[in-house]
């Protein structure tokens, strides 16, 4: 077993410009953590480290990684940024899997490798499973996202050969002031909020605040390894989420976006994302004694809005 994470600590971070990464960087000092962002441009700050995630030699000066305690790897193309053409599917896959392989191989060459690798994954690994209740021991599902997440996690787990504790962070839908929620709010505030399809598909969500707290919890608890679902303990159907958001904004939310229209407009992203039913529970976090500030959607939306 790897020794407990000793604070203050040094965390190498990819994806630092994203919602989760930038929030982690802001919160880290209060947890006595020093962050070292990996950047694709020339570094502008002393703690930044230049890298090329698609290169087999991703960091020009690997010696800078010798004193790192943990790695938080969040890099990857945004699955919701574009329609899933063949070319963009390849970008989604390779930006995750290849960058992880290259990073892990680099970590394996270090004289003093980090003790922990936290690597992003997603609840998309489970596929669309209807009413089935899923936890970390559930089998993977089918589809492009499921296959991508399986390959992503497999690449990260290779770090165990260097004695590194590996945690695959299976993110649910992250509710934050930025991101998906921000895109929904204008329509809902106009009373034009709509469920997606029949609304019976399950949504596994988590607030950004709880997600960050979970990351710091995992950093401290060396007994946590393998896949961890970063989702709230009370998933909701899309119809329930739509009603809850409407109530929180004191606006009606009675419309529906037909499934066929979503599939026509968005293709695979609609089928495996917006219309997929994934009912996930955070079994490992709960067993580890983690407490959610927003376990239910009403509390989450009240805090955010």
TrEMBL record:
InterPro entries: DUF1731, Epimerase_deHydtase, NAD(P)-bd_dom_sf, SDR39U1. Residues 11-221 form the NAD-dependent epimerase/dehydratase domain. It comes from the Bacteria. Residues 257-304 form the DUF1731 domain. Belongs to the NAD(P)-dependent epimerase/dehydratase family. SDR39U1 subfamily. This is TIGR01777 family protein.
